[in-house]
Amino acid sequence: MTIRRLGIFPNMGKEKVCAALPEFLSMCRECGIDPVLPDSIAADYGCASYALNDSEQLSNLDAGVSLGGDGTLLKMAGYLAPVQVPVFGINFGKLGFLAEIDSNSIHKAVTKLSQGIFSYENRSLLRAEVIKDDKIFKTADALNDLVLAKGTFSKLAHLQMYINGKVSGTYAADGIIVATATGSTAYSLSAGGPLVQPELDISVITPVCAHSLTARALVIPMSEIIEFRALPGSEELLLSADGENVIAVIDDMCVRIRKSPYTMQFIRLTSRDYYQTWQQKLMRNI
Predict the structure, then answer these.
(1) Residues 70, 141, 145, 174: which is the catalytic one?
(2) Mean pLDDT, to the nearest integer, of 141-148?
(3) Catalytic annotation on 70?
């Protein structure tokens, strides 16, 4: 398959992205790809446009590309996963685990894209359901991780965890991270969680600064259903998905985490494997 309509999700807060965007648009046109920009800036660059809140327009894209860091790619994934549009990222940030194309390899990537020289890779997402009075009050999907953490108060979060309806742990901690395999290199890793090959269908449960000598990360199949309930006397908690605040969770709510019905299809344009990436980005502290 060749890509003809490419949705571009640029982080215009980065000077390098702003400087590189005109040349990137020219490369796309030279290779027969129609670049499509957010409607807020499309007219400035003479491009077709899309609206972020219009799923029909987004579904008409052949692929999406982020220009920025991993955070930009995660935001793009939040819009494109529900409409099943494949994505890739060009890294203008620092580590770039998800945005795997370096900014100096743009021309080669665009050429491969136009010629259909790439492969697809599916990644699973997690879904959080906030339950109140036995009804789903709020939902959120995450490619990297879901985090339930203490709010503005200095007290620890006290949480009871259930897996498939059975009590499976009690935590006194700053919070709990439930990460996908894709997200194992992000916040979970900083909190002591393991590195996981990103195509595996698992959830990584990692406590943050647990007040315990025995609390460790737990890796379980993503088919398992996880629930968290605040213990009596707990303060307000905050639920976030891929770094974006979702809702304040109070003591009469339950947070249920399961496999999302969405998957994210990544376009692979390089032959670099994950073990090389981990070595380059983490082991050498680059």
Answers:
(1) 70
(2) 98
(3) yes
